[in-house]
Structures are given as C-alpha cells and as structure tokens.
C-alpha cells in the first residue's frame, strides 16, 4: 500500500503526526471533534507528554487496537486536559472545548507555530512569560516594553504621574503651579540693622533672628515708593517765603526717588532769581534750560537730552536755569510748557523748583501741568503763615483740586522746637492737604553744599523715605487731573 500522509494516518490509525511537520493543535482539535477520541488522546500525549522545554521526538506507529497513550498518563479517555470549569486555560477561556493542550513554551514550539500555521491565521498566540497582548512582540520574538499609557514605577529618582487623568491646575494652585510661593520653603528675611544683623553676619547666616519691626516698616515704605507709574508724574515745590529749604527739599526728594526706583527722575530749576538747584549735585555741564529749548528740534533720544543735564550719585538729573536774572526773567509760561512737554517723553518723574513769586509768568504753566504740590514750610510761625497763605492763594485762583492733592512738609524740625506747638501746625495743614510730613534738622543739609544721601542722619533718611512713599501713593492718579485750557495771548 502507498504511504499515506500524516493527516490520513491520524484519521485512520490514530498515529500521531510528526512534530517536525508542524502539527497544528487546531487541526488535531478538528479531528477529535469528528469522533476519534483515541486520536485526541494520542495527539495530546504526543504534544504535551514531554517535559516542558524538551525537544519533541517523532512517535512510532501504534497499533490501532492498543490503548490510548492518554490512559497511561492518568487522564481518562476523552477528558479535556484544560483547567477546571470556570477558569481560563492556555488554549482559551472556560466554556470552550479544546481538543489539545496548549503548546509548551519552548523556542521550537514558537518556531513551528510561526513557520507552519501562523501564516494561515488559525494558530492561537503562544503565551510566553511576560507576554502582553496589548504591547505585542518585536520582530525578533522579544517581548515589547509596556504601553505608553502606563505610569512609571516609583523609585529613588522617579515619581509616578497621573497622566491625562490629572486635574488641570490653575495659577493659584494645582499640580501645574510652579510659582515661587509653592516651590520655595518659607524662610525668615535676613535682618538689615541692629544686633540682629550683627548676629546674622557673625554666625555666617546660621542664626537668623529675622528682621526687626523697623526693617519691616522700611521694606513696606520702599514697596510704596516703587508703586507702578504710568506716564509722567509732575511735582511742583511751592512756598511764598524764601529760606525754608524748598531747593533742598527738591534735591533730597528727587534723590530718594531716583535711588529707589528704576525710573528716570529729573528736577527742573524754574526759579527766576538765580536758582541754586544746580549747586546741589556735581556739575557736569554748563548747559541750561534755555539751551535745551534752543535745540529742541534736534532732540530725538534720551542721550540727546542727557547732554544738557547733570547727574548726581543718586541718579537724579538736574536741568539748571540761567544764572543771569535778566535772562531768566524771559522764561515764560510757554517756555515752561515746551520744556515739560519735551521732558515727559524721556522721564517718569519731573520735579519743579519754583520761585517765591506766584505771579511769575511761568507759574501759571507750572500749576496747570502739575499732578501734585509740595507746600514747604519751616518750623517757625512765619514759615507756617507763609505756607498757609500759599494755599489761600491757590484756592482763590481756581486750584482747589490741586490743593487737595498736595502734601505739606514742615522742614528743619529740631528736637526742641521751642514754644511752637508743631502738633497744632500739623493739624492745620492736615485739614487742608492730603498729608503732612515732618523732616528733622540735619547738619549735612545745613551746610548748603552738594547733597549726598549717605551723609544724612538715619532719622532724616527715614523721614525722606516716608515723604517719598506718601507722594507715591498718588502715582495711580497720574494724568487724571483736569487741565485748565491754555488761553491765547
């Protein structure tokens, strides 16, 4: 008789198929379903009877009348070799009736499945240790890595994330808030003065007692001085009486602003009687406001304006006036308006040192463009009366709104003011002005020479800082004042 193929041998005689021929478990299962229980047992014995991982060998032909090999292994004929009911086995979930056991996890089995039956699409996927059906296997048979949606395992340097399920964090909190308040640990501010500073420096920063109440108040005042300023803020220094320190006040206040703020600050000398503002800082140029107006058409950049000003150590710039009274008298209202219009394009704060004559031709331009006034008074009775008369004149000439935004300064206050009740004087100006500030007497300012903030007493610097903060509280209203129209002449 002609030799039959292996499939025919299995159907007729129950002889197991040679493993080298790429036997398919699904084919064996189909044969068992056709009614040959002995073939099913023989096939199960031929595939899974060996030890896992061992090289399978070809089975010899068996006698059709011989008992099935499954019986000798302790498995009843026709019984399934899968797991108990309700559990999933290697060949499929519960409820299915597999005809053969799952192929052992060996390289040879994987090779046979890949080469013989996987191409036909009827072979189940082998389940290797670590195999993930979602990730698949690489072309070399190696198990692919975990899918990208899995969170990393927490380790020494890895923190597992929540991926797309994490709630969106806002600017004030949440997982995405990277503000300094969320990331930095709270710590005490280093002290700036006193024994606290000495202890902090002496221990190399290891002992930090924190800032004192005075340091905290100073920091708050500096924050007020640095309030945002939109546009140009113009301040005019007024007094009907000379010798009260109006020019000195202009220099010290402007120096305080220039040293603490990053803005450009300039002081303009509008005193017609040979003003001395240019003598309060080192002189860098002999140019005056008259030269600036003459060359105004050629001024395009800040460096062009800088050629007509002098700058002190505090970064305060000064635009000097003419030293000849006959020439300075010709500095009119129109000239002042032209000067301020030019300067406000390059400077954020403009201080004007006015003369004692309120009827001067330039005074109307000064009052019309000013955002705030500083009414300077001395700590004497005549000084207080002159300052109060200045407010009366302003009220009578239509500048009541400017008076309400003004700040009164009582200058040169000594520790012992004699019989003058300065509290009563302060109450008088507080009822008419926005605020009242007292400046103590300082030997450095009494010299009348160039002013340096570092040479001032600590009490004087503290009072100037409070004055600057008080003036800066009105920065938010810059440009909000209703200007009086310019009448044609």
UniProtKB/TrEMBL annotation:
This is AAA domain-containing protein. InterPro entries: AAA_dom, P-loop_NTPase, ParA/MinD_ATPase. Residues 1-193 are annotated as: Disordered. Residues 234-379 form the AAA domain. Residues 19-46, 53-103, 160-169 have a biased composition (Low complexity). Gene3D superfamilies: P-loop containing nucleotide triphosphate hydrolases (3.40.50.300). Pfam families: AAA_31 (PF13614). Residues 1-18, 108-120 have a biased composition (Basic and acidic residues).
